[in-house]
Amino acid sequence: MASWFYASEGKQQGPYPEGQFRDLVAQGIVRPDTLVWSEGMAGWQKAAEIPGLIGGGGAPPMMPAGGPPMMGGRGYGGGSLSADFSAFGLLGRAIVFVIGMLLVIPAPWVAVWFYKYVTSHIQVPGRPNFGFAGQPMDIWWALMANALLTYAGATGISYAPLLATIVNAFLAWVILRWIVANLSSNGERLPLSFQGSAIGYVGWYLLMLISTITIIGWAWVLAYWMRWICRNTEGTRREIVFSGSGWQILWRTVVFSLACSFIIPIPWMLRWYGNWYVAQFGLVDRAAAAARGY
């Protein structure tokens, strides 16, 4: 039986079984001007343009197979990601995540639990039911070692903090590759992989730490680091881009930090910052991305 998707307020809804979807039509939730898509259609169409969908009748005609093109991409077949984190949901999970990492042994389980929550609240145009398929024991050693090294700075060995930083950067590279490889849609892993080198990642990691000396320079380093990560994520016909600027990252981080100093606003500020950060990632046609300088 066919599954249907529809667009509402710029977000993709679905999938819905044929019967349930026609109930949405009958209830007026899906209107004649609503963009809809089902397997077998070449692209999104207004519901009124599909024979038999509005006002009864038979099923829509089948068209060449393929996934729905990304919405909101100005003709590039792309669009921006969006997130709908809840204030206390994100904060509560972030606290448990930090505690789990500090306790080391629970690190693999709390990491997977946290990544599943985050991805389930991110909407990727053309990728319904975005999620994370990784399992705690996939790279348990990297997650536990990453957590354990947070204590290295407390040792009395002078070279331990620097060595721990480099090793931690390498482990972060391993974890990033694992996360990208386990992103999923409708329960199926996406054919994505992170191809950035370990040396390159460690270099960006160290540059990020050094840039904190400048007080504000870290924000621009972070913006370019995100662009480097996006350029080195492969497996999709569309380019993954990061559009946030150093200035945008800086002023939002300052506002976030100042507001959080009052304690009470923390849940809402974390949600505000997290939703904005996710929205800076998008998908565009690779040729268009090159033309726009990404």
From TrEMBL:
Residues 4-53 form the GYF domain. Keywords: Membrane, Transmembrane, Transmembrane helix. Pfam families: GYF_2. The chain crosses the membrane at residues 94-115, 162-181, 201-228, 249-270. InterPro entries: GYF_2 (IPR025640). This is GYF domain-containing protein. It comes from Bradyrhizobium betae.
